[in-house]
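Feature request disguised as a bug: please show the residue count (142) next to VOC family protein in the output. Example input:
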Amino acid sequence: MTILETAIVAARPQALADYYRTVFALEPEWSIELTDEAFAASGLGVPCQVICLRTPSGQRLKFLGPARRPRTGHGGPPVIEHAGAPLFTLVVDALEEVVRASRAAGGGVLGDGTVIDVKPGVRVTFLTDPEGNAVELIERAS
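Example output, currently without the count:
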């Protein structure tokens, strides 16, 4: 069995975790400070704070905060033109409500914020979190 968990390197991991808790109602699962040199040798780097949140359906989203401010540079729009640019998808119940909550919590929209009707009952838009990570939002009719 394979389970996918997503991790984001964050300049301010606690603030970013708070944003995702507020906007997407994710629940805290655990938090740890990694200091073991085995993690350094693995290429992750230490020390590193890791905060893990859980979606209502059980997926995990982790925020990794290195001791030194991480380098930025995941491009910008259009995301599709940047190999390795982070983009992940969250399925939500109320697209416009989530976009409003994101903006109120310091997030933005990607591009002009257009909501796209992909097919009957499926709508998509893209936003950015406070650190500029691109997030695809999908709303599916019940």
